Design the sequence.
């Protein structure tokens, strides 16, 4: 009898947890991702805002499994799945047979039918997205410095963030701090303290996943940092010159999109039903409907809890799903009874506002202020992979606390170089 | 009387030293660079070879002069100089008047009349160059892992470095260590220990700027790491498939160019004589011929020493020239006698081979082995800017020593992403 082959697509939180959970299970594992690295997305906004370097929150996937000879890592992109033949085809032409398939391919930004906004309002999902936002933000200050027309200068000094979930709130807080505290002494022609940071939310309040009192606290903390918060106002247009909110046009040369996500193509590959956001509607054991050998987890799956609410698209949920799937596979290959249906345990919601405020919503128990900030910081350092990254991130945060100076303020990539360079 | 205005073009080692030396001189300074950061080029090869992150060896220029209100930093690219009108024009259309101009615009790669080789054999001058080389090198291993044709696989596992100066030697040493010690356990289909690293030098020996005995030692150290050293053999062709050395074609999918440099356009802007490498032939006080208010320093200047040899294009030489120019300017504005002609003091030549050997040539006094490595390491940490970077680089080196694991093994930039990503 040949070894059971598990193919895992996607090296995010969910996919890695499946591979981790299969250690010693006696199965062969192939892990495929189109990037060579696992990314710690919860801190990606800190790369975009010049606090952390790319290598501090990303790890080469194949390094993580160097000591697991039964795990093969492939850099590749999935083209399609043939669930009848039980094969996965890659864009390179390679075809892999699987006994069990796990799709953990995540999600990307959604522009709600306005994909034409993407070039002017980039989202934040990859390391390149983060360095793109960083470059645009830093270049806006540089261009303001040499701009003589006051209206054009103000447009460079206006940063709009669309969407007030955790990412939008975190970006707005750090950009405001950067403009108001870190940069003022470095420019001669502009006063960066006059920078406008506008956080735009279509819903009635910031951080809608949190309790109302925490949303209210977060909004006050943002306003204290100088962020203008607009709630209940959908964005109706984004251009290179600015953003239209309801009827109002805000001249703004830098727009960041933090408003919505669209699941990856898992449902389409499988030919199974998806919700409006493209998420595969999975069974109680996280398999795709009618395909007991195919699991779909993380941001690309829609899992409904007993109370009728969906499991949120956050890292702890993806990890719990990955761990559960590993258990199901272990039970199957060893002929033991399968575990019961997947149960999501919500450990709490966390968000930070700048470098001294945070909120934590544990449900019954709520926390805000600097104690919440410390818990947030320690939790994130704990969940990083490896001593080196934990140390490097902790050191950067400590340094920024002590000096106020961000370390990763580099404008890179071709756009800034001379044509022949 | 209006303030004396010094315009410095280029935020490399030379340009920064001019600005540093003008502290308290009562002059207005404008520092222009087409990048927003100063780059510590001597360690750039460590970014290319996954040891360091970009932000560890680069600093935002305007941050360095935050506390010098008389210094204005501009992100911009010079289009031309009008030495009669005493103006500098930027590509953006801005025109600046100067009383004194310092051109410290550096050098770029030279392909000796074969610019068509550049796309297949990138050089190493900017952060983008470093991440490009890093991406190509890491992708070559990834592609080898999924390549079924043995000859094609071998071509992916052959890395050619053209030019055996310090950069070429350093790159070859680290790539060999990476392939032979760091990566073997992470791949399932290839044996990265069979990687070929070929170092090609047209001249008779590696590191020609060093004493012969040190060159011989370096070559032995390279060969011990598994590097194939070809000397006395010029490259006659570079293509995407490999490099031709004399009559021999070496199939090699990754080529790095470390063979020659070409000075920037300073001489052309000024309309003054240049040598074959494009370097402005300057006067004994580092001014351009016939233009006493224009200084040219660093890699873009040719300075002949009393013994007839040119000052080498290295960081300490640029810094000495920058310091000298600041002194001349201070003397002029305060009406004191100008200092005598510029004298270059050669402090020594340093190079490393992998992570345990180095050579230092102080002239009469020569050093090799691990003591040289430690001196090299401490010297480089000392010359980094600021506590944060010193600490971060030292920590990375310590970590690699203890674990053998490189931290910055990330493939980034668009080439690796899916089309719609």
Sequence:
């Amino acid at each position: 009898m040949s070894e059971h082959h598990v193919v895992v697509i996607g090296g995010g939180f969910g996919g890695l947890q499946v591979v981790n959970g299969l250690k010693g299970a006696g199965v062969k594992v192939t892990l495929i991702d189109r990037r060579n690295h696992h990314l710690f997305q919860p801190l990606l906004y800190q790369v975009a805002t010049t606090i952390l370097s790319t290598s501090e929150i990303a790890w080469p996937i194949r390094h993580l499994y160097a000591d697991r000879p039964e795990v093969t890592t492939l850099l590749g992109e999935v083209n399609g799945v043939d669930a009848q033949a039980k094969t996965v085809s890659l864009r390179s032409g390679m075809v892999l047979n699987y006994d069990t398939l796990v799709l953990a391919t995540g999600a990307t930004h959604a522009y709600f039918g306005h994909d034409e906004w993407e070039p002017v309002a980039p989202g934040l999902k990859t390391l390149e997205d983060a360095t793109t936002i960083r470059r645009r933000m830093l270049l806006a200050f540089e261009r303001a410095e040499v701009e003589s027309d006051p209206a054009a200068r103000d447009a460079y000094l206006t940063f709009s963030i669309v969407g007030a979930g955790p990412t939008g709130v975190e970006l707005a807080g750090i950009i405001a701090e950067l403009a108001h505290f870190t940069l003022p002494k470095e420019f001669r022609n502009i006063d960066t303290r006059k920078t406008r940071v506008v956080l735009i939310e279509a819903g009635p309040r910031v951080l809608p996943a949190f309790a109302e009192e925490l949303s209210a606290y977060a909004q006050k903390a943002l306003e204290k940092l100088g962020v203008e918060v607009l709630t209940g106002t959908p964005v109706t247009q984004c251009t290179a010159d600015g953003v239209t909110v309801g009827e109002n046009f805000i001249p703004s040369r830098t727009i960041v999109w933090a408003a919505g996500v669209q699941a990856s193509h898992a449902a389409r590959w499988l030919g199974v039903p998806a919700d409006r956001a493209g998420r595969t509607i999975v069974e109680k054991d996280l398999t795709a409907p009618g395909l007991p050998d195919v699991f779909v987890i993380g941001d690309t799956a829609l899992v409904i809890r007993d109370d009728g609410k969906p499991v949120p698209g956050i890292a702890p949920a993806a990890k719990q799903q990955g761990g559960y799937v590993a258990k199901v596979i272990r039970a199957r290959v060893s002929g033991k009874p399968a575990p019961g249906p997947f149960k999501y345990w919500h450990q709490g919601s966390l968000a930070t506002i700048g470098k001294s405020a945070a909120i934590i919503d544990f449900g019954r128990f709520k926390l805000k202020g600097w104690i919440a900030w410390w818990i947030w910081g320690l939790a994130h350092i704990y969940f990083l992979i490896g001593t080196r990254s934990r140390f490097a991130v902790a050191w950067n945060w400590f340094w920024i606390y002590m000096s106020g100076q961000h370390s990763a303020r580099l404008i890179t990539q071709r756009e800034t170089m001379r044509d022949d360079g």
Observations:
- The two ends of chain A are 58 Å apart (CA to CA).
- Chain A has two domains: 5-109+261-333, 113-259.
- Residues 414-421 of chain A have pLDDT under 50 and may be disordered.
